[in-house]
Amino acid sequence: MKVLSVLGGRPLYGQVQIHGAKNAVLPILAATVATKETCVIRGCPDIRDVDTALEILRYLGCGVDADGGVIAVNAAGLRRTEIPAGLMEKMRSSVLFLGALLAAEGEAVIYPPGGCVLGARPIDLHISGLRQLGASLLAQGDRLQFQAAKLAGGDVVLPYPSVGATENLLLAATAADDSVRIVGAAREPEISDLAGFLNACGADIRGAGTSVVTVYPAALHGADYRVMPDRMEAATYLSAVACAGGELTLRQMRPCHLQAVTERYEAAGCSIRSYDDALCIRAGGLHAVAPVITGPYPAFPTDAQATLMAALLKADGTTVMEETVFENRYRHVPQLRKLGADIELAGKIARIRGVRSLHGAAMEATDLRGGAAMLTAALGAEGESTLSHIYHMERGYDHMTQNLCRLGAKLELHGTDER
Ligand code: EPZ
Question: Considering only CA atoms, which residue is closest to atom 18 of ligand 1?
Answer without folding.
Answer: 162
